[in-house]
Write a structure and sequence with these properties.
globular, 404 residues, 28% helix, alpha+beta
């Protein structure tokens, strides 16, 4: 079974909270890290003030504090929640105060991007004002969808909100909700709706710059995607994380003391024991070696990631070897997309081979991509033979986090 590790790690003189999941051979199969210093983060909701609207760029500039500007695309302004409407006109105008949510964190010289379409995350569901239709994750089997829709509709019908709170929102049940007990799922849906109602009803009394909603913490986010039944142990050298893990999993498993381990050894640190330096060098390198002697080169551009598969050291150019090389590369590509949290459009240039072997490769690649908890899809093969993949962006990729 897999094992997981939580630890604090210093990289380039900056402090990070890290999570790693590895198989029996200590090969990393999942990884996340986050800077510990406080900054404006994706998902936070603020009371913002409109500074100016610039029609030429189809956007507006708003402030969420005296020293933090944000960019609001006008396409993201749909049924905004005004906390103070200073302008007499119905449309958004300079001086208005309204709720905005951080959609993209600041990048280099670019300010954060915000939206008036709000999303509130529960443990097993997401409430959004951008899409008012209710639904279930696409990764949930057809057998479970009808049952989950029934639970969802019952919860929404039985939940009342204050008169001044808009009923126009939708709720999506996440993939992890399919294996959750009905009573727990119902409670999560209802508490998420109540949290949304409280945010909207109380924000009218909040001052400009107030943080009215802070999304789940890094630890909470990771815990939601760990199925403790498939993990042999979770080890941490941080006392606060250990206590949080024990508290959380005491409601999920009976033998929590044997699953959650506190690591205390002054002779060797936890991140040294699990080879963090070696793995970080791999995850920040453009070249990743494959078992057969080939490699993949990963180049991340502004809006595109390009991955090139090479035979490299191997002199074997036979058809069987080329298929083996491409299959190893496909497995590693799916792994690197997850570990580096690469999103957007990805192009992969596999080594050319026979048409029949190409279909074998594509089927294998689709199965590897389907293992990703983040929506990752095979799109097509271009006329030049490049494989197109898209991966949904939920959180900043590794290279952005390390360059903050």
């Amino acid at each position: 079974m897999d094992t997981a590790v939580f630890t604090r790690y210093v990289y380039n003189k900056k402090n990070y909270l890290c999570y790693v999941r590895m198989d029996n051979n200590r090969k990393w199969i999942d990884f996340s890290m986050e800077r510990e210093e406080k900054k404006v983060s994706q998902g936070e909701i603020y009371v913002a003030r409109v500074e100016r609207i610039v029609p030429n760029i189809k956007g507006a500039f708003v402030k969420i504090s005296s020293d933090q500007n944000c960019y609001l695309p006008l396409s993201n302004v749909k049924k905004p929640f005004y906390t103070c409407k200073r302008a007499k006109c119905m449309d958004m105008a300079a001086g208005d105060e309204l709720l905005v949510q951080i959609q993209k964190e600041a990048q280099k010289t670019k300010d954060p991007v915000v939206t008036t379409e709000l999303s509130i995350h529960g443990s097993y569901c997401v409430l959004t004002t951008g899409n008012t239709q209710n639904g279930v994750s696409k990764k949930v089997s057809k057998e479970d969808r009808e049952r989950l829709f029934s639970i969802l509709n019952t919860c929404i019908a039985g939940r009342t909100l204050p008169d001044d709170v808009s009923k126009e929102f939708g709720i999506i049940i996440r993939t992890n909700g399919a294996d959750t007990k009905p009573e727990i799922l119902s409670w999560d849906i209802q508490s998420t709706i109540e949290q949304y109602g409280k945010i909207i009803s109380t924000s009218a009394y909040k001052n400009f710059g107030t943080l009215v909603y802070e999304p789940e913490s890094f630890l909470d986010r990771i815990l939601k995607k760990i199925d403790i039944r498939n993990v042999e142990s979770i080890t941490t050298d941080q006392e606060d994380i250990y206590e949080a893990l024990v508290s959380y999993y005491s409601h999920h498993v009976d033998d929590v003391s044997s699953r959650i381990r506190s690591y205390q050894d002054d002779a060797i640190s936890l991140h040294t024991l699990y080879g963090f330096r070696k793995h970080m060098e791999e995850l920040t390198s453009t070249k990743v070696w494959l078992p057969c002697g080939g490699n993949i080169l990963i180049e991340t551009l502004e809006t595109l990631t390009v991955i090139d598969v090479n035979s490299a050291k191997s002199q074997d150019k036979h058809s069987d070897f080329l298929l083996k090389l491409n299959l190893e590369a496909a497995k590693e590509v799916a792994r690197q997309l997850k570990l580096r949290n690469i999103s957007g459009m990805i192009l992969v240039d596999f080594v050319n081979m026979k048409k029949s072997e190409e279909m074998v490769l594509i089927d294998f690649l689709k199965k590897e991509l389907a293992k990703d908890l983040v929506l990752c899809s095979f799109i097509d093969i271009t006329k030049l033979g490049l494989v197109e993949i898209t991966r949904k962006k939920q959180y900043p990729p590794l290279h952005e986090i390390l360059s903050e």
